[in-house]
Amino acid sequence: MRRGIHTLLGAGLLGAGLLTAPTSAGAAPAEPCQLGTSNTDIRSCETTGAQAMPVPTLGDGICAGLVRAERITAFDGPLWEYSEAPGMTHGIEVNLAQGYAPLGEWGSTVLACDQTVHVDWRNLDTGESGRVDRFIPAGAPSYAQQLVHIDSGPGNVELTVGTDQPHLPTTTHVQVP
Predict the structure, then answer these.
(1) Beta strand 115-123 pairing with 55-59
(2) For 16, phi and psi rounded to 5 degrees?
(3) 8 Å CB contact between 119 and 159
(4) Which of 4, 40, 99, 138 has the highest Cβ tally under 10 A?
């Protein structure tokens, strides 16, 4: 009888998720995750962040502009099905914006030009590298998300943000879990 109670109690704790089987260190989680804080059943991704200086540029060749990497988030993944890159693991999401809104994010934007922004990346641990591009029209409001996703793999990743017009690039590093 005592053994049956212990078996039943162990099965109940295992089913409740209070008792778990050991897993190997560094193994990628099987369940999908959501960037930011989840208030639903989906788990929140393990994340790290970075910041970058704005990129002064001449959009359209004659328009004085400013490009910003507003939010740089490295994550473990896999991202859940409703993300912009479902299933991506060990990557980086960069939210690009341009111009400057002196009255806040809902005000009009100055220093905005039609331009293609590129993010060059290099994983310093694996040697992998690449580039992602995103066209941002001058009329895009500062609060509109202009996301690019980088499939860098885990490690220390160097990011350089620039444009297809004359510009002063900015470089930053982020650790991808």
Answers:
(1) unpaired
(2) -80, -5
(3) yes
(4) 99
Sign of the CA dihedral running 11, 16, 19, 25: positive
Residue 113 has φ and ψ, to the nearest 5°, of -140, 155
DSSP three-state, residue 5: helix
* Nearest alpha carbon to residue 35 among 84, 97, 98: 84
Instruction: Retrieve residue 84's tokens.
Output: 């912009």
> Strands across the sheet with 115-123, in order?
129-136, 115-123, 155-163, 170-176
Q: Round to whole Å and give the CA distance between 147 and 69.
A: 10
Give the pLDDT of the chain (177 residues) as one tens digit per residue.
444 444 444 444 334 333 333 333 445 456 888 887 666 677 888 999 999 999 999 987 789 999 999 899 999 989 988 888 999 999 999 999 888 877 776 777 888 888 999 999 999 999 999 999 999 988 887 677 799 999 999 999 999 999 999 999 999 999 999
Residue whose token pair is 């050991």: 22
Which amino acid is present at 52? A
Structure tokens at 52: 């970058």
